[in-house]
Design goal:
It is a single chain. The protein is built from 8 helices and 6 strands. The protein is of the alpha/beta class. It has one domain: Uracil-DNA Glycosylase, subunit E (3-Layer(aba) Sandwich). Strand 5 and strand 6 form a beta hairpin. Helix 1 runs antiparallel to helix 5 and helix 4 crosses helix 8. It is globular.
Amino acid sequence: MRSPIADLGALNEEVVACRKCPRLVAHREATARDKRAMYAGETYWGRPVPGFGDPTARLLVLGLAPAAHGGNRTGRIFTGDRSGDWLYGALWKAGFANQPESRSRDDGLELHDAWVTAAVRCAPPDNKPKIAERDNCEPYLVREVALLSGLRVVVALGAYAWAAALRVLVPRPRPTPRFGHGAEATVGSVILLGCYHPSQQNTFTGKLTEPMIDAVFARARELVSG
């Protein structure tokens, strides 16, 4: 019998090799070629970004897609940008990470009881995937969730991730739970938690503050430990 580590590793290799969406392939590769000036000396990842974390995780953190100069540059989800600073800082405070920063794939970050992934695995233009692109990626998330056999809590970062989680978790609740920061919904054996996405649009405006994101992950810790 294969282990969760092996199965998730095989899935991640399949994700990284994916070229299903021509528009996303073109955008991620163009971004990797025409680098932002501050990263001119770096070699961009420029491929789909796989999930990352503890294969025995009870917590899944779900985002929208990799950032063009974050995950698409570093090759690890929520790594190398300000959104990642907020996310991994909150995970560290809640005891899910061994350090509060995520700068590169070899920075020593380890997650404990948590797995981080995205609904769409390639950086999309204007951070807006098309429906067909979302649908091409969805089977990867379905398989990822199935392989996380101990899953108890999903934190959805933003309304897009909330909707993606409700499409893959079973059974689908009726009526459909509405997204909101701090929202909770029971979906089968899993508790779905809503959190505003730690994008600069939200953090710079104060829509999302550190105490707000910390409270969501403190609640996630309470639920997985209960």
